[in-house]
Amino acid sequence: MITTRSHKKMFAGIALAAVAAFPLAACSSSDSSDSASSSSSESKVSVAKPVARINALSGKDTAVKLDPGFTDALTSLGLTPGVVGDAKLEDGSLIFPVTGGNVTVFKKGEAKPYVIGQIQHEGSGFSLTAGDTKVEITNLNVDPGISRVYGDVSVNGKTAASSAFIFQLRGATLKPLQVEGDTAILEGTKVFISPVAAGLLNDTFKTDAVTDQLEVGVAKITVNTTPAA
Predict the structure, then answer these.
(1) Where are the alpha helices (DSSP H) in the chain?
(2) Distance spanning both ends of the chain, measured CA to CA
(3) Among 128, 97, 132, 141, which Cα is nearest to 19's?
(4) Which of these, 219, 22, 192, 212, lies nearest to 115 by C-alpha position?
(5) CA pair distance 67, 69, nearest whole angstrom
(6) 78 and 204 in contact (C-beta within 8 Å)?
(7) How far from chain centre, in Å, is Cα 212?
(8) Which of 20, 39, 46, 128 is buried most deeply by CB count within 10 Å?
(9) What angle do CA 132, 135, 141 make, to 5 degrees?
């Protein structure tokens, strides 16, 4: 499990909090309320049979279809979004190439969480600019087992935090695993601003427009079913 090394104090000073501002990657297997697995849940995972397992992810991408309410909030805060590295913004979706990780999927109801692993997006990210301050969120890592997305944060080119908790995931609307040729697709998880990021954003920009109920978008993760060599 990935741990966040960021500190509240470190975040507060950075417009990062605005991080929340853009839809970032992710697909999750469980609601945020499922973040902590009980011992009985862990036992269930141990005896359940996976419907899919990829030990070494070799490519494809994570896309988040932006919610209009989220982009409206961005505008109201005076934040200008952008992409970093290999990321793209196409047809209303922010897209990050998958560069590594692993994933195991169980049948919904037979294990909790029913998607575990990590999905890495090294070398890409997004930016938020307000005035002469530019925040970049990169190297995104999705941990579906605890319904969180982490990333590295820099402000005006200087590292501010590593493996920071940026988004929370709610997977109640996650669709069953789809397989198309040599790819597997997990689609439907809703992406929300993390409570920490929402509070910091409001404090930094003197607003109450952002809450952890603000949906930034819906995620679609597409991965190759052939593991990396």
Answers:
(1) 8-12, 39-47, 68-76, 195-205
(2) 24
(3) 128
(4) 219
(5) 5
(6) no
(7) 14
(8) 20
(9) 175
Residue with tokens 């998607």: 115
Length of the chain: 229
Q: Which residue has tokens 């909090």?
A: 17
Please name the residues in contact with 27: beta carbons below 8 A apart, sequence gap of 6 or more.
62, 115, 119, 142, 144, 169, 171, 174, 186, 187, 189, 219, 220, 221
Tokens describing residue 206: 């003197």
Q: What are 129's two structure tokens?
A: 């600019």
pLDDT number for residue 189: 94
What is the C-alpha to C-alpha distance for residues 222 and 62, in angstroms, rounded to an integer? Answer: 6
Strands annotated E in the chain: 50-54, 60-66, 80-85, 88-90, 93-97, 100-106, 115-130, 133-143, 148-155, 158-170, 178-180, 183-193, 215-224
User: Is residue 186 a contact partner of residue 62, using CB atoms and an 8 Å limit?
Assistant: no
pTM for the model stands at 0.75
Single-letter code of the amino acid located at 50? P
* pLDDT attached to residue 218: 97
The residue type found at 180 is E
Q: Which two tokens stand for residue 105?
A: 């999927």
Predicted local distance difference test score (pLDDT) of residue 147 = 92
Residues in the chain with pLDDT values less than 70: 1-46, 199-206, 227-229
CB atoms within 10 A of CB 192: 24
